Amino acid sequence: MNSEEEFYDAETGLESDDSCEVSFKDAMVFEGKQAKDGSTPQQNGVWERRKMLPADMISRNNLNMWSVLKKCIGMELSKIAMPVVFNEPLSFLQRISEYMEHTHLIHKACSLSDSIERMQVVAAFAVSAVASQWERTGKPFNPLLGETFELTREEDGYRLISEQVSHHPPVSAFHAESLKQEFEFHGTIYPKLKFWGKSVEAEPKGTMTLELLKHKEAYTWTNPMCCVHNIILGKLWIEQYGTVEILNHSTGDKCVLNFKPCGMFGKELHKVEGYIQDKSKKKHRVIYGKWTECMYSVDSKVYDSNKKAEKKAGGISKKQKQETCAEGDEADDMPDLQETVTVIPGSALLWKIAPRPPHSEKMYNFTSFALTLNEMEPGMEGLLAPTDCRLRPDLKAMEDGDLDGAMTEKERLEDKQRAARKERSKEEEEWSTRWFQTKTNPHTGAEDWLYSGGYFERNFVESPNIY
């Protein structure tokens, strides 16, 4: 381990399209046994994505987390060495790609003619993008400088490329685009974490930009704060909180979403509520639900009437609130979950989360989508950039259940990266990013890392040797 390792967390389709330069086509699904690497073997040219990892999650029971973090209270955790056993077998670049799990919502927004209706679906997409973080208490591997990840999903009509564009501070950039030129979705993430004694608070700095090309619209927002409780003692649990503002730069429509903190009795845990207004600040719709479950939309007048009726029916007394607000001394116990959302009559369902796969708790609580991200599809290995994190040996060792191998490889890669940085400093040479450049985001006017193009032409001759 070394002191310069960053510690941070980040988070239906269309028919195939021939516009992708190189494709990894899915074939029909068949009934077959899983291979040792978790994938379904190919028979008669038929292949399907894997439904399990090659090995069960590595146990974390024998590690004393307090010995690692006791000197870090109140500090920003950008240079704290963390044991690899607290990782999950994905890179942070792969964690970012999980924003695309619910791409069908973007396609739905593209198909709608009304801007308010488009906004409510974009809002549902923004919420769905953080849904996979529920119960994901392992941290992703820190990307090496120059590391990349590509993802092409023809069945969902998109492809994505991401790159680690800075090491100190850690900065990750991604760009996803429709295979039918319907949308572009891109962003830059500057993760900031702080340890507060019993919890780690993550601030995912950076702006998400979604462009609906047919409608000539651009939406921007930032993700909510995330807090992992009981880092030292007790059961780990996650909450997201903060205000997320989604702005349509073309129409002036705005959606303001409030990710609610746990609150009294835990009744607010996971709840998201907000509203959509037009440029004249007239409210049209209210969005509500849970980021772990589902999101609904209802007319704002209907929502207000329903809330008034609830108040008349009575609420929690101040005395009851005071009796329950004391915090435990040893652990922040997670409140009992109330998994259902009370649906207001007249509401429309915008999005519903898919169930986790069987035995997900033995596979780092991965979603079905996350399980496939480190998988080598048929014909892929010879086409990937040599910097793709599927080729990263420490990550692969951990996925295979080899903790010692993961630790050894991780240390080797860090030494290699450190030596390369010293050599560049000696030669007074600046690091040059390959696929992204700093430019002005035309919609926000702020500096951003934007895709410079060319990745899918697959000319990787000048790719750095980082593994």
Pick out its properties.
about 475 residues; alpha+beta; six-stranded antiparallel beta barrel; two-stranded parallel sheet; globular; disordered N terminus
Walkthrough of the structure:
The chain is of the alpha+beta class and 467 residues long. 19% of the residues lie in helices and 26% in strands. The chain has 9 helices and 18 strands. The protein has helices at residues 65-69, 92-97, 104-111, 115-128, 300-312, 318-324, 368-371, 393-399, 403-426; strands at residues 87-91, 139-141, 148-153, 158-166, 171-178, 183-195, 199-205, 208-212, 217-221, 225-229, 237-248, 254-259, 271-277, 283-290, 294-299, 348-352, 436-440, 447-451. The chain has a 6-stranded antiparallel β-barrel with strand order 6-7-10-11-9-8. The protein has a two-stranded parallel ribbon with strand order 1-2. The protein has a two-stranded antiparallel sheet with strand order 17-18. Strand 14 and strand 15 (294-299) form a beta hairpin. The longest helix is centred in the C-terminal third of the chain and has 24 residues, at 403-426. It is globular and about 65 Å long. The two termini are 17 Å apart.
